[in-house]
């Protein structure tokens, strides 16, 4: 089966649904799929959406209907107002984070920059809105929201009796002190009561919610008068009634009592003050001494009463002024004393969450919601938890283990993203990222306890400064066993190859700890992509039962964006992405595609998980396609091709007919598609890799056929094809059937599983003609011999010697040798190969030979029909592989053949080796394999083809001792002898010595020759000269040589010269011998004729590779020297002989004249002249 080559995945990019919104509002920054009673919606965050004049941000609900123009509706969550809080909603970024709770189909939309007013400050604590399954606001989630330190209910108790004068000064004081208060929801409420003889409400605590309204109401308060000052009654009225009407639970209760005289019900003060203490009412008392001063009355008793009314200590709660006009002087001091109560509520959390930006990230867990608060604790950040039973806000100290105090000014931004994992103990472990920790980023895994402490189990650290490691986190349970398998940490600003490409780190769970396991691979291109800005774990997309992963890279392709889909496998995630979906594939104008991703629901009712992807100003829905696997099989009837029995005729020729059954089964991976079907087209090809097929389809007579069919899910469908096989030379390799198939409509409907085979190759073998078990057992026998003669054969045939001599010749070598005659250039090997067993398939003869041989030919003999083909391998020139009767060597077959080898001109060896072995693909028995090879290994001697000649400038010399013509005295005539060796053979000659022996003196010491020079005209020839060449008698001694007229190396003193012979083919060498006869001795010696013989002999050195056809090859140069005896002839004999000779000549001339000898010549000339003259005429 061949795997498919497609890199596509089953997310459809041809028909996306693009929901457009406002780019200015950043519609699409976050997306969440939503299900209400089976109706599917898409929830889209638009954090810059406006509501009225404020840019609050908001969330849209978009119905997912078949209508492509369905409109989205704004939920107007930006208009939700918190009671009892002075909130500021402008730029609060509602929708910056969204979290869905699949249990009740509610979701959380957060506004991390939501702020509220506390006194003179605005605190950006953040706030989230919980929306129920029918898109109705349910509740506000704001765990970092604390009551303002100005959360007070203040009751001002005014003495309105007649003694207060002028009243306008009291009104001015009241207005000025009210202007000091931060009046509003969640801050200060003010109520005023006036007493004298009776007590009345001027206005209640909750009547007015702003400073402006309260001041306006206060300016209309008139003095009610009265003859009595019932201060105790006024205080009791304020405690028991004024604080109850509009008072807020948990608010700090403050009472300001202003009076100008002792009370008329002073006995009741002790009980009233005791009750006020029980109700935690803080009392400020102002004594106006105008009445006393105007009348000169001692105010001591009055002051003591006022001090008793004021809370302890008196120096903070008691004031006195000289008169009503002086009240304005204590406004600032009284305001400061009241506001000094801020932060003293023991039930509130200490300062640290005021700028927390809670909701920057959110994550739903079983028992509540995790909220990231990046600005908490001086921007080190924190993770808060909101549960049904309350909130959990970890203490600053609980983070110090991983976020030490010395790094607090770095702004770690813990809570930038929050998530969770399930440990092997099935415990929920929270995960939070701090992308700015120590500039490189950090991720912590922790548990949160109700006592506001943390247990940090593990910390993971980033590796690159500024990479924002930990700004995105997600976990994946790949195999769905309830335990997290993979933790993924994004570092979208990771700098690589000169670009801000981004990186996603992979950690796998091992023994309750996450171990680094590399990183995901994005597109290998050099661009600022911010890969890892969004990481979404999604249920099984490709229907292989493993959950998958989608990663966003919103800045890819010049900020158009892309997403990457990674497949889960077993307990990990495959790091090479399977599908990359770029915004450019989906539609024009998309920007920052991939900034948010969510995929948990089937949105189009086809049983498959679909993806929602956010971009700037739009949300994109991508549909999953069903995945199908096509199981294919082929079977043949009969199962093998019988070439020995032809059972049909095709095109008038005998053929073997066969049938092929091609079966397909469509298996849909999703249970939702078990009743579906898929259209398929397929191609059938026979012997596709051969130029000429060995089988043909009956239908068309061709090798190919194309068909189409529709496959119902889960049902096997088979089609029958008839084909036939004609005669072919190759019966060994089976005939291949190739099925290539593809979906009829690959762009629509189901798609073939990724990596699933789209081809099937099945072979139908030939029947091998062997036993029933179809197991062929051959018995190959190889025999070979060479035509190179042995030493004995060479001696008898070439040297023509007798048997005893040839035996001695053969034994003269240290081993058994074979002789290569000088005329031989080739070696022939006669061989036979026989199969005594069953058919031998793919029989091969492997031939290897020594380097001094070159393969020339292999020629079958006896007109056999068995074909032998030999292949040449340039890499192994000394090896040959020959196919014997391919495809099989029949049983009982025998073939004889001759191998010819030529001797190499360049490589000369003293041995020759030829090794042959025959084997086949059929399994031969071990016991019969000993005769499968032939090994010819000969030690060689070569017959030297040398032309050995000699020349001499002197052959004969006669000594005339008494002749005046003698030119030589002591040194005689010169001589120049040349011995020539020529290599006429094919092989280089070496290992041979030429030895010259020159007789230079008699045994008595009389010099015969004088050698003057010896030369060899071949370079690098080494010669050695032996013998005495100079130390002989100066005066010859008498010596009679008449009995030894022939002197040579055996009976005279000699000079011996040995030279090594080394001749390449067609090369020659000349040995030049120069010298003179020594006349002084030759004249003195007694002889008539003397022969001096110089001998040159060729000798084989030990181990030489050469032999000589000539038994003892030698050449001689002989100088013959004669010395005739002296004789005296009388003068008269000389004169008589002369005269007799002249007389005889005269008689002879006279006789010829008489016979007319001289006339006949002249007569003939005259006749010729006459004939010439006639011719001219």
From TrEMBL:
Q: Which UniProt keywords apply?
A: Calcium, Cell adhesion, Disulfide bond, Glycoprotein, Integrin, Membrane, Metal-binding, Receptor, Repeat, Signal, Transmembrane, Transmembrane helix
Q: Give the UniProt entry's GO cellular component terms.
A: external side of plasma membrane; integrin complex
Where is the chain membrane-spanning? 1131-1155
**SUPFAM superfamilies given in the database record:** Integrin alpha N-terminal domain, Integrin domains, vWA-like
Q: Where in the cell is it found?
A: Membrane
Query: What biological processes does GO assign it?
Result: cell adhesion mediated by integrin; cell-cell adhesion; cell-matrix adhesion; integrin-mediated signaling pathway
UniProt cross-references to InterPro entries, sorted A to Z: FG-GAP (IPR013517), Int_alpha_beta-p (IPR013519), Integrin_alpha (IPR000413), Integrin_alpha_Ig-like_1 (IPR013649), Integrin_alpha_Ig-like_2 (IPR048285), Integrin_alpha_Ig-like_3 (IPR048286), Integrin_alpha_N (IPR028994), Integrin_dom_sf (IPR032695)
Q: What is this protein called?
A: Integrin alpha-11
Q: Which organism is it from?
A: Acanthisitta chloris
């Amino acid at each position: 089966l061949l795997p498919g080559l497609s890199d596509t995945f089953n997310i459809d990019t041809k028909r996306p649904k693009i929901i457009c919104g406002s780019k200015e509002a950043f519609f699409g920054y976050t997306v969440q799929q939503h299900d209400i009673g089976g109706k599917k919606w898409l929830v889209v965050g638009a954090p810059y959406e406006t509501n009225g004049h404020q840019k609050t941000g908001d969330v849209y609900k978009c119905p997912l209907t078949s209508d492509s123009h369905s409109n989205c509706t704004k939920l107007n969550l930006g208009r939700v107002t918190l009671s009892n809080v002075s909130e500021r909603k402008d730029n609060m970024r509602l929708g910056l984070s969204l979290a869905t709770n699949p249990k009740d189909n509610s979701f959380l939309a957060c506004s991390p920059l939501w702020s509220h007013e506390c006194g003179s400050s605005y605190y950006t604590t953040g706030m989230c809105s919980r929306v129920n399954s029918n898109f109705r606001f349910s509740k506000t989630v704001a765990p970092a929201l604390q009551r303002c330190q100005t959360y007070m209910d203040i009751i001002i108790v005014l003495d309105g009796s007649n003694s207060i004068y002028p009243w306008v000064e009291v009104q001015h004081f009241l207005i000025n002190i009210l202007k000091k208060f931060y009046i509003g929801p969640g801050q200060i409420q003010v109520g005023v009561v006036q007493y004298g003889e009776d007590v009345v409400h001027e206005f209640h605590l909750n009547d007015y919610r702003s400073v402006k309204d309260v001041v306006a109401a206060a300016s209309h308060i008139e003095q009610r008068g009265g003859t009595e000052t019932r201060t105790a009654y006024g205080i009791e009225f304020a405690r028991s009634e004024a604080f109850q009407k509009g008072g807020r639970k948990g608010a700090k209760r403050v009472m300001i009592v202003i009076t100008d005289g002792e009370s008329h019900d002073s006995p009741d003060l002790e009980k009233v003050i005791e009750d006020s203490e029980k109700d935690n009412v803080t009392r400020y008392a102002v004594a106006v001494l105008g009445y006393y001063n105007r009348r000169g009355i001692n105010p001591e008793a009055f002051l003591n009463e006022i001090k008793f009314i004021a809370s302890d200590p008196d120096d903070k709660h008691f004031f006195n002024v000289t008169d009503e006009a002086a009240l304005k002087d204590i406004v600032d001091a009284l305001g400061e004393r009241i506001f000094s109560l801020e932060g003293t509520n023991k039930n509130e959390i200490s300062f640290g969450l005021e700028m927390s930006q809670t909701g920057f990230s959110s994550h739903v867990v079983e028992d509540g919601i995790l909220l990231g608060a990046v600005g908490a604790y001086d921007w080190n950040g924190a993770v808060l938890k909101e549960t049904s039973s309350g909130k959990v806000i970890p203490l600053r100290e609980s983070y110090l283990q991983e976020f030490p105090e010395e790094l607090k000014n770095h702004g770690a931004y813990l809570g930038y993203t929050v998530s969770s994992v399930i440990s092997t103990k099935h415990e929920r472990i929270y995960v939070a990222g701090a992308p700015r920790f120590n500039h490189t980023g950090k991720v912590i895994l922790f548990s949160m306890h109700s006592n506001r402490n943390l247990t940090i189990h593990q910390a993971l650290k980033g590796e690159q400064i500024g990479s924002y490691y930990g700004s995105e986190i997600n976990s994946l349970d790949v195999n769905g066993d309830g335990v997290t398998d993979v933790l993924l940490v994004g570092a979208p600003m990771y700098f690589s190859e000169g670009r801000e490409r981004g990186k996603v780190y992979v950690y796998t769970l091992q023994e309750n700890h996450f171990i680094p396991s590399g990183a995901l691979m994005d597109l290998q291109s050099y661009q600022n992509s911010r890969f890892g800005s969004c990481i979404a774990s999604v249920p099984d997309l490709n229907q292989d039962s493993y959950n998958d992963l989608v990663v966003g890279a919103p800045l890819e392709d010049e900020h158009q964006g892309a997403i990457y889909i990674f497949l889960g496998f077993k307990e990990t995630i495959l790091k090479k992405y399977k599908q990359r979906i770029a915004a450019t594939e989906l539609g024009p104008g998309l920007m920052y595609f991939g900034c948010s991703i969510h995929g948990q629901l089937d949105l189009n009712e086809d049983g498959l998980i679909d993806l929602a992807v956010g971009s700037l100003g739009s949300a994109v829905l991508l549909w999953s396609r069903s995945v199908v696997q096509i199981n294919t099989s082929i079977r043949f009837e009969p199962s093998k091709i019988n070439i020995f029995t032809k059972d049909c005729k095709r095109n008038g020729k005998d053929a073997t007919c066969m049938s092929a059954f091609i079966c397909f089964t469509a298996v849909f991976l999703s249970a939702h598609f078990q009743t579906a079907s898929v259209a398929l087209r397929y191609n059938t090809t026979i012997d596709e890799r051969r130029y000429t097929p060995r089988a043909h389809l009956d239908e068309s007579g061709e090798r190919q056929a194309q068909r189409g069919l529709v496959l119902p899910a889960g049902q096997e469908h088979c089609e029958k094809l008839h084909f036939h096989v004609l005669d072919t030379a190759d019966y060994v390799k089976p005939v291949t059937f190739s099925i290539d198939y593809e979906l009829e409509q690959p762009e629509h409907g189901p798609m073939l599983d990724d990596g699933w085979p789209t081809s099937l190759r099945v072979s139908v073998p030939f029947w091998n003609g062997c036993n029933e078990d179809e197991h062929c057992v051959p018995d190959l026998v190889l025999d070979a011999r060479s035509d190179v003669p042995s030493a004995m054969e060479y001696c008898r045939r070439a040297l023509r010697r007798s048997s005893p001599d040839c035996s001695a010749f053969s034994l003269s070598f240290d081993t058994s040798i074979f002789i290569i005659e000088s005329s031989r250039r080739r070696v022939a090997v006669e061989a036979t190969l026989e199969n005594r067993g069953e058919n031998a398939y793919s029989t091969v003869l492997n031939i290897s030979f020594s380097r001094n041989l070159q393969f020339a030919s292999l020629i079958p003999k006896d007109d056999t029909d068995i074909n032998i083909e030999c292949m040449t391998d340039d890499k192994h020139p000394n090896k040959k592989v020959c196919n014997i009767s391919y495809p099989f060597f029949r049983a009982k077959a025998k073939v004889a053949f001759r191998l010819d080898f030529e001797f190499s001109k360049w490589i000369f060896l003293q041995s020759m080796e030829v090794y042959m072995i025959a084997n086949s693909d059929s399994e031969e028995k071990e016991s019969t394999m000993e005769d499968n090879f032939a090994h010819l290994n000969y030690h060689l001697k070569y017959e030297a083809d040398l032309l050995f000649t000699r020349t001499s400038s002197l052959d004969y010399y006669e000594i005339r001792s008494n002749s005046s013509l003698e030119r030589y005295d002591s040194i005689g005539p010169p001589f120049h002898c040349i011995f020539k060796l020529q290599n006429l053979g094919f092989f280089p000659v070496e290992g041979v010595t030429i030895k010259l022996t020159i007789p230079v003196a008699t045994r008595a010491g009389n010099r015969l020759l004088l050698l003057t020079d010896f030369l060899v005209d071949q370079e690098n020839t080494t010669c050695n000269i032996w013998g005495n060449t100079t130390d002989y008698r100066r005066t010859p001694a008498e010596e009679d040589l008449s009995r030894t007229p022939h002197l040579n190396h055996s009976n005279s003193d000699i000079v011996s010269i040995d030279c090594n012979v080394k001749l390449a083919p067609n090369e020659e060498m000349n040995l030049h011998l120069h010298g003179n006869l020594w006349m002084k001795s030759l004249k003195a010696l007694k002889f008539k004729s003397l022969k001096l013989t110089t001998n040159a002999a060729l000798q084989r050195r030990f181990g030489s590779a050469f032999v000589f056809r000539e038994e003892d090859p030698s050449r001689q140069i002989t100088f013959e020297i004669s010395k005739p005896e002296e004789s005296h002839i009388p003068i008269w004999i000389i004169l008589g002989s002369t005269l007799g000779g002249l007389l005889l000549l005269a008689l002879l001339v006279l006789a010829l004249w008489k016979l007319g000898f001289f006339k006949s010549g002249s007569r003939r000339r005259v006749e010729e002249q006459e004939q010439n003259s006639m011719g001219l005429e």
